[in-house]
């Protein structure tokens, strides 16, 4: 009986590990797709679609700081052109997507991944400097 229990437990642990890995991979792929869609919307000057990809607080902060509608304010930021995805890191409900010409931060919402910061540049021993960010 103990051998059966041990084998069953081992199978169960392996199944949980495999599910966790595939779930992480799926979340990384979804965050990557959201980042690329956002960047393509900006590149094609589709401000409405790009704004729909922003997290609510990020959209609100952008409109307030620019004193303009989101679509106009976003396109005025003149973000770098879209590039290939170089790295994706997901930590729970947060993600960082590094593209050739941009770094984006995202959060998972019930409606999918939303951009919380874009146009980000790393700074030594300091937080990233982002042109678009939430409050």
Structure description:
The chain has 135 residues and is of the alpha+beta class. A five-stranded antiparallel beta sheet has the order 1-2-3-4-5. The chain has one domain: Nuclear Transport Factor 2, Chain: A, CATH 3.10.450. A hairpin with a 2-residue loop joins strand 1 (85-91) and strand 2 (94-99). The relative contact order is 0.16. It is globular. The protein contains four helices and five strands; from the N terminus they run ααααβββββ. Mean pLDDT is 85; it is low at 1-22. It has helices at 2-43, 47-52, 56-66, 70-76, and strands at 85-91, 94-99, 103-109, 112-123, 126-133.
Characterize the overall form.
Answer: globular
> What percentage of the residues does DSSP assign to strands (E)?
25-35%
Query: Going across the major beta sheet, what is the strand order?
Result: 1-2-3-4-5
Distance, first to last CA: 58 Å
Topology as a string of helices (H) and strands (E): HHHHEEEEE
Percent in helix: 40-55%
Number of helices: 4
Radius of gyration: 19 Å
Major beta sheet summary: 5 strands, antiparallel
Total domain count? 1
Could you list the spans in which at least 5 consecutive residues all have pLDDT below 50? 1-22
Mean pLDDT: 85
CATH class value? Alpha Beta
CATH architecture: Roll
Beta-strand segment tally: 5
């Amino acid at each position: 009986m103990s051998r059966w229990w041990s084998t069953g437990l081992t199978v169960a642990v392996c199944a949980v590990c495999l599910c966790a890995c595939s779930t992480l991979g799926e979340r990384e792929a979804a965050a990557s797709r959201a980042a690329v869609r956002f960047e393509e919307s900006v590149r094609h000057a589709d401000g409405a679609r790009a704004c729909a990809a922003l997290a609510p607080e990020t959209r609100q902060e952008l409109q307030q700081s620019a004193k303009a509608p989101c679509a106009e304010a976003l396109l005025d930021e003149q973000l770098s052109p879209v590039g290939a995805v170089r790295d994706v890191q997901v930590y729970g409900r947060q993600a960082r997507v590094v593209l050739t010409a941009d770094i984006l931060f995202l959060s998972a919402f019930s409606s999918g991944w939303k951009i919380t910061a874009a146009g980000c540049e790393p700074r030594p021993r300091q937080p990233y400097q982002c042109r678009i960010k939430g409050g």
